[in-house]
Amino acid sequence: xxxxxxxxxxxxxxxxxxxxxxxxxxxxxxxxxxxxxxxxxxxxxxxxxxxxxxxxxxxxxxxxxxxxxxxxxxxxxxxxxxxxxxxxxxxxxxxxxxxxxxxxxxxxxxxxxxxxxxxxxxxxxxxxxxxxxxxxxxxxxxxxxxxxxxxxxxxxxxxxxxxxxxxxxxxxxxxxxxxxxxxxxxxxxxxxxxxxxxxxxxxxxxxxxxxxxxxxxxxxxxxxxxxxxxxxxxxxxxxxxxxxxxxxxxxxxxxxxxxxxxxxxxxx
Amino acid sequence: xxxxxxxxxxxxxxxxxxxxxxxxxxxxxxxxxxxxxxxxxxxxxxxxxxxxxxxxxxxxxxxxxxxxxxxxxxxxxxxxxxxxxxxxxxxxxxxxxxxxxxxxxxxxxxxxxxxxxxxxxxxxxxxxxxxxxxxxxxxxxxxxxxxxxxxxxxxxxxxxxxxxxxxxxxxxxxxxxxxxxxxxxxxxxxxxxxxxxxxxxxxxxxxxxxxxxxxxxxxxxxxxxxxxxxxxxxxxxxxxxxxxxxxxxxxxxxxxxxxxxxxxxxx
Lengths: 268, 267
Prior knowledge:
Order of helices and strands of chain B: EHEHEHEHHHEHEHHHE
Oligomer: heterodimer
Strand order of the largest sheet of chain B: 3-2-1-4-5-6-7
Shape of chain B: globular
Structural class of chain B: alpha/beta
Strand order of the largest sheet of chain A: 3-2-1-4-5-6-7
Number of helices of chain B: 10
Mean pLDDT of chain A: 95
Helix content of chain A: 40-55%
Distance between the termini of chain A: 44 Å
Distance between the termini of chain B: 48 Å
Largest sheet of chain B: 7 strands, parallel
Shape of chain A: globular
Mean pLDDT of chain B: 95
């Protein structure tokens, strides 16, 4: 625990995809800043590591190993948080698929003409979109009853601009961005805020197949104005801001954290 | 305990009231040395007193950004006193009261004279941002370090029924921020903006009473209330600090959901 109370002290935060990358960094940061953190992901060993890290800093939390593709997972995670801590103040929806998924499921991360209906349903009906829906739907009743809550969805810069491939993925991210706006205006009345973080290239397992491109300085400059990928911790800091009461008037916001990627018309 | 902008030097325009004042005080509380400028000396002194009462440190420069010499003077004062400028918060702008004092400036295009237009676009609302940024940039580029936070408005992303010149300047700031963000990224200088909605400051004083009516306030803002200057200062602090080290070119909406909807809910 830090030498002050923490920016989310006393709150309860549920984080999906907490075993690695942005979710893991967020889980640990929210834990360090005083929240009781409830993490879910598929890989038990990595989740345990994450929780140990939180506890090592004097934080508190619990982990639930489960697959968001299984029906009932979201409800189970939310119920576990309510059973353990009595409420949910913060929901961070983060679990999603990356380029490796495309290698394992050919066609899912392709351009539309190469995407089968099954590929499309794998992404849209999988963790990338339906998983967000299920987590939010499970958490909302308790937030509405408490008339308090902050939902932070991790989307992508590819939810506000296009990609040359991964078309179902970009559709899912765009859907999350605008679903966030609709939820913001609908549940603002009940003091439930919904905001979206749109990361650019972040050095996580999700983009492992392309991270090598940053080794070449010219390519790095062509890819990102800041000439580097971001770190999971840099996204976690954005999530912390939106999740905390610091952002009490921020609702429906789409916060780009992309090193300037989507601010340009073309690469300079 | 270490603050979130400990050891940094922050320059804030429009520091005498509203969002600027709240940012001035918050950045100081979080450990920055703060340099505030605005026209009204008395109000600035109050702000500095508040900073010092909380154990912070700073200085103030009473000056008018409509005067071309003001921006360099403010930046020079900061560098002279503290040796560096890490954070620049451009915030000074005009509000609806300006429109009352200068008829036509906060009007729709067909009611605005060329002079009205120039008052806004060539005044603090846009040129004032340019002169402040222009004055601070050489120093930031030399140090390869800096964070510029411009306070724009939700009305830089969506339109208004009046104040057309004002909306043009806010839109200009947002896209100028993107251009600066991508251009100076390789020099370690970040540029971002905050887009406030209705905030309870003198800027919207003529309109704030609308929030007293229960039906009107929900029609105006999904959260049913105006924001506070402190809520905007939190957004400024996030973008000013190293917490946002991968943010550049961003327009951070802090509007209670105002512009996320296509139209107000019926009932």
